[in-house]
Write a structure and sequence with these properties.
Elements (H helix, E strand, L loop, with lengths): L12 E2 L7 E8 L2 E9 L2 E4 L3 E3 L3 E7 L2 E8 L17 E3 L9 E5 L10 E2 L4 H13 L8 E7 L8 E8 L3 E3 L2 E3 L9 E11 L2 E11 L16 E7 L8 E8 L2 E9 L4 E10 L1
Parallel strand pairs: 1-5
Antiparallel strand pairs: 2-3, 2-9, 3-4, 6-7, 6-9, 7-8, 10-11, 11-12, 12-15, 13-14, 15-16, 17-18, 18-19, 19-20
């Protein structure tokens, strides 16, 4: 499963001598760091176009903020499986409990200029999720699995970012695992509630999937419905934060970076690996 990147590409891109550039890695576990992409010269660059990567210091983030720091030795390796991916050696520097996936960012600016906080969702948030489920003709109750709040673009108005999953997350040995849909109507989604003005509150769905008919094994693969907020970071140094979402599929995982363009959230990076 190879994801398509909707970005401007630069052939043979090197970040070996790019002090103003940024590199984003996904940590699937302590010994596995893959390049999601880079930002340099006003554009996002996909991992497979990188030819060099220098030794760098990284800050490591989860959904709520910084959770560790790491040292990258530099260099890029192409794995046998998912040969569009690029792996790089990374050593965590702090001894603390980790939950994966996590994201390592090397950048000369503050990666998180405003705090991200979690909160207990209220009835209004459940109604918003229920409305989206109803639009998809899903009759199951809203099960909010993450409720985060932050000011994404520094305009003084906080956005609410929600994930909802039925069934909920599966976490084992410090790692979030995708869960298969068990029955029709099981779902996973990530959405943002954003004030465009003091009186204009809108909902933007970043990712959603659901099982719309029973899976009997005669066609296709079983549906993995887990959708999650991975991190919220400023990936391009403009003081505004992008949202990283995570998705799982049958024997595969992925990450997508979403950026607000003033009208809607658009994909600027996509990474994935699956067999």
């Amino acid at each position: 499963m190879q994801k398509i990147w909707s970005v401007v590409l630069v052939l043979g891109f090197s970040v070996a001598q790019a002090p103003q550039g940024a590199v984003l890695l996904r940590l699937n576990d302590a010994g596995n760091a893959v390049v999601v992409g880079a930002y340099q010269g006003g554009r996002f660059i996909q991992a497979e176009k990188l030819t060099r990567l220098e030794a760098r210091r990284y800050q490591v983030f989860g959904p709520l903020g910084r959770i560790n720091q790491a040292q990258g030795a530099g260099g890029l390796k192409t794995p046998d499986i998912c040969d569009w991916n690029r792996e790089t050696p990374l050593t965590l520097l702090e001894r603390r409990a980790m939950q994966y996936p996590a994201y390592a960012l090397s950048a000369p600016w503050n990666p998180q200029p405003r705090a991200v906080t979690s909160f207990a969702p209220a009835a209004a948030h459940r109604r918003v999720v229920a409305a989206e489920l109803a639009r998809l003709n899903i009759k199951k109750a809203p099960n909010i699995t993450q409720a985060l709040r932050t000011d994404l673009d520094g305009d003084g108005r906080e956005e609410v970012i929600l994930s909802a999953n039925q069934p909920g997350f599966s976490i084992g040995e410090g790692r979030v695992e995708g869960r298969y849909a068990q029955e029709v109507g099981d779902y996973g989604l990530v959405m943002v509630r954003k004030l465009l003005s003091d009186t204009d509150l809108r909902t933007f769905v970043l990712d959603v999937t659901h099982l719309d008919k029973p899976f009997d094994g005669t066609e296709g693969m079983p549906t993995v419905i887990t959708r999650r907020i991975g991190a919220i970071l400023d990936l391009d140094g403009d003081g505004k934060m992008e949202i990283i979402t995570e998705d799982w599929m049958h024997e595969g995982v992925g990450s997508t970076v979403w950026r607000w363009n003033g009208r809607q959230f658009v994909k600027v990076l996509e990474w994935g690996c699956g067999v």
